[in-house]
Amino acid sequence: MSLKKKDEHDHKGWMESRDLTVVEERYLAVLMWLDKRFRLVDYLELLEDLYYKVNMQMPKSHTEQYGLDNKFWYWYPLYALGSFSTLAYLVAAVSGALLGFYYAPAAAGATGDPTVAWNSVAAIMTDLNFGYMLRSIHRWSAQVMTAAVFLHMLRVYFTGAYKEPRELNWIIGIVLISMTMVFGYTGYLLPWNQLSFWAGQIGVEMALSIPMAGEWVAQLMFGGFTLTQATLQRMYILHVFFLPFLVTALIAVHIGIVWMQGIAEPH
Amino acid sequence: MTANDTNTDSEKVTDGGEEVATDGTGIVPPDDETPTWRERKERTQGLSRLTYEYFERARREDQDLRQESSYVERDVLGFPAWPHEMIRNLALTSFFVGMILFLSATLPPEMLPPADASNTPAVILPDWYLYWSFGLLKLGPLNPDLSLLGGQKLMADRTYGVLANLVIVGAITIVPFVNKGAARRPVEQPFWAAVGVFGVVFAATISALSIKNLVPMDSHLLFDLTFLLPFVAGFITYAVLKSMREGYMFTLNRRYYRLRPPK
After folding, report:
1. What are the backbone angles phi and psi of residue A99, rounded to the nearest 5°?
2. Where does the pLDDT of residue B253 fall: very low under 50, low under 70, confident under 90, or very high at 90 and above?
3. Would you give the distance in Å from CA B125 to the centre of its chain?
4. Which of A163, A178, A212 is best to mutate for the B interface (most B CBs within 10 A)?
5. Which of A90, B58, B62, B64 has fewest C-beta within 10 Å?
6. How far apart are alpha carbons A122 and A102 in whole angstroms?
């Protein structure tokens, strides 16, 4: 009998000693990977003894633990950027919903004469009471959100907050920032003015230049190889129906994971 | 055994003298035969059983680590959520939303002429946050010629540009799987901070390249600067942080040894 203390926490050895099938092994590997990152065990435990957990103790705060109470931390203001982008997203959502009452996504004829979409935007700007303000709020909150999201990513990069348990959230963040830009792009096309039209043209050509799948992508995203009513329709649906659900859900997951893992502060 | 059988046993009669239904229709207190939740979980088969076993092991591990550690937990003495934190958050939120409203009121968006397919404007631009991507589409001069194919390019310039977008997004995505370790501050990892500064400056220069019609500079010079400046900025960052690190690590180590003097 060995005097060496048995390592109770040797999950890997335990796994090997169990003689598992391939399915079980894969399953356990994924379970462990997720548990290591999101502490699923804690939540299970929390559910089980929620009953008698009335005297919750809080751990020491970061500044207490490292004796930094007396120091002003130059990173701290940058930790609000995530909240600011969420706030700007909410403002954009509300103003966008109101704008939706007055906007009509139709391009009667893109060849020469003014279009329905452009006219409805013009009506919002000139005829509607506070309409210009509404459009302005929508546009500015979108700009602020994009800027905040970019700066948020820089903060996370430079403080190494993407490291070990937070890889998944970094990837979700990449998806979110991409979707924010697609949000902006589709919104940019909606007024159907000269810049919208020619930016749309660039988009179609980018889609067409994808090897193999190019034409298919152009059909799917822009409804053809030239800009028509179908393009505007698709951009509108992407902007007001598709992306809002997707982005809201992803933001919820993103923030939920931050909630579970806590904020990564630099040491 | 039904309720109609010999019911003289005192244990089967409740306080009210009513008969105890053991056929599942009434509330039956658990006896020794009733499995506990633990036993129920242990009896399961397959993947749920495996999950249970793993979780039990992991919880045990957590408990052991908690008991071993000298980590000091404190009583609940936090900043109160109500009303202090709520008021602070409300103040921050209204300040921020107020800023958006102020910007909106002072700088309303312009109204450009309507779309016209037959008339190409002099300047074609996406919104500012896509300048970097638009700039990548203009990297045609970097698309290598391959003389083997009779001087033909291997792929079209615009395919190359789209590919450059994918490469950049992909590179950003895999960062957590390449840069590991516990370092959090730029001083602790000068190389990765330099890479970050390189990226930021490159985003700026490639954006400038995308609006080259509007930049008062020779376009060839601008193209060269687009790739030169990020490297310069990266090298400077690396040099500065590398020299800062000496002093930084010294203070850090000194504090560490003061806490735990070496034997």
Report:
1. -60, -35
2. low
3. 30
4. A163
5. B64
6. 11
Locate A219 and state its tokens: 């059909």
Closest chain A C-alpha to B32 CA, distance in angstroms: 22
Mention every residue, 6+ apart, whose C-beta is less than 8 A from residue B177.
A167
Using the Cβ of A54 and the Cβ atoms of chain B, whether some distance falls under 8 Å is answered with no
- Least CB–CB distance from B117: residue in A42, A197, A206: A197
Q: Do B104 and A139 touch (CB under 8 A)?
A: yes
Residue B51 has pLDDT above 80, yes or no: yes
Are residues B121 and A195, on separate chains, in Cβ contact within 8 Å?
yes
Q: How many CB pairs under 8 A join A and B?
A: 214
Chain B residue closest in CA terms to A267: B184
Is the CB of B57 less than 8 angstroms away from the CB of A80? no
Expressed in angstroms, the distance from the first to the final Cα of chain B is 74
Residue A238 host element (H or E):
none
Angle made by CA atoms B184, B189, B192, in degrees to the nearest 5: 100
The tokens for A129 are 């009471």
Asked if A66 reaches chain B (Cβ–Cβ under 8 Å), the answer is no
3-state secondary structure of B201: helix
Q: Which pLDDT tens digit goes with each residue over A152-209?
A: 999 999 999 999 889 999 999 999 999 999 999 999 999 998 889 999 998 998 898 8
Contact A254, A169 (CB under 8 A): yes
* A194/B182 CB distance under 8 A: no
Start-end of H helices in chain A: 11-17, 22-38, 40-48, 62-65, 81-100, 116-126, 131-158, 167-189, 194-208, 214-222, 229-237, 243-261
**What span, in angstroms and rounded, lies between the C-alpha atoms of A262 and B1?**
57
Asked if the Cβ–Cβ distance from A205 to B158 is below 8 Å, we say yes
Of B157 and A76, the structure prediction assigns the larger pLDDT to B157
Give residues with Cβ within 8 angstroms of B130, minimum separation 6.
Answer: A181, A184, A185
Handedness of CA B113, B114, B115, B117 (dihedral sign): negative
> ipTM strictly over 0.90?
no
Please state, in angstroms and rounded to a whole number, the distance separating the CA atoms of residues B122 and B252.
57
- pLDDT tens, residue by residue, B103-115: 999 999 988 888 8
Interchain contact A222–B (C-beta under 8 A):
no
> Which helix (H) or strand (E) is B215 found in, with range?
none
Which amino acid type is present at position A223?
A: G
